[in-house]
Amino acid sequence: MRCFFLPAIVGELLFRVFLLPNPSEITNWFQGALWAIVNLLLFVLYHPLNAKTFYKAGIATFYNHVFLFLARFLGVICTVAYNLTGSLFAIVLIH
Questions:
Q1: Model pTM score
Q2: Fewer Cβ within 10 Å of end Cβ, the chain: N or C?
Q3: 15-43 burial: b if 16+ Cβ within 10 Å, else e
Q4: What are phi and psi of 20, to 5 degrees?
Q5: Cα–Cα nearest to 67, from 48, 40, 93
Q6: Is 22 left (phi over 0), alpha (psi -120 to 50) or beta?
Q7: pLDDT value for 3
Q8: 52, 59 Cβ separation under 8 angstroms
Q9: CA–CA separation, 33 vs 36, rounded Å?
Q10: How far apart are CA 89 and CA 95, in angstroms?
């Protein structure tokens, strides 16, 4: 169970809740989009970096181009969901 929930909670806290401004604070669409793009880049780069440093068993998966494409897709979906709801619970469930 820990392997199921922990990556989603930690990942979404770090990449959505801590790094993105709260949806109620975004007043400029361009600034919000810029934050989202930088955040998405960090989210995708985090996976291979994590495999290289902390989770060596994940190297085969985290360097796979299909996985990285799906991670990017997940990042976009979670960012949109966070901007619509402002809810950690919603994005953890999606993740």
A1: 0.83
A2: N
A3: bbeeebeeeeeeeeeeebeebbeebbeeb
A4: -95, 145
A5: 48
A6: beta
A7: 61
A8: yes
A9: 5
A10: 10
Residue type at position 16: R
Q: Closest Cα partner for 84 from 24, 20, 36?
A: 24
Locus of tokens 């999606």: 94
Q: What is the pLDDT of residue 50?
A: 84
- Please state the domain extents for the chain: 2-21+29-94
Question: What is the average pLDDT score of the chain?
Answer: 86
Q: Average pLDDT for residues 18-24, to the nearest whole number?
A: 83
- Residues listed for the chain: 95
Q: Do the beta carbons of residue 14 and residue 50 sit within 8 Å?
A: no
Q: Where are the alpha helices (DSSP H) in 13-64?
A: 29-53, 59-62
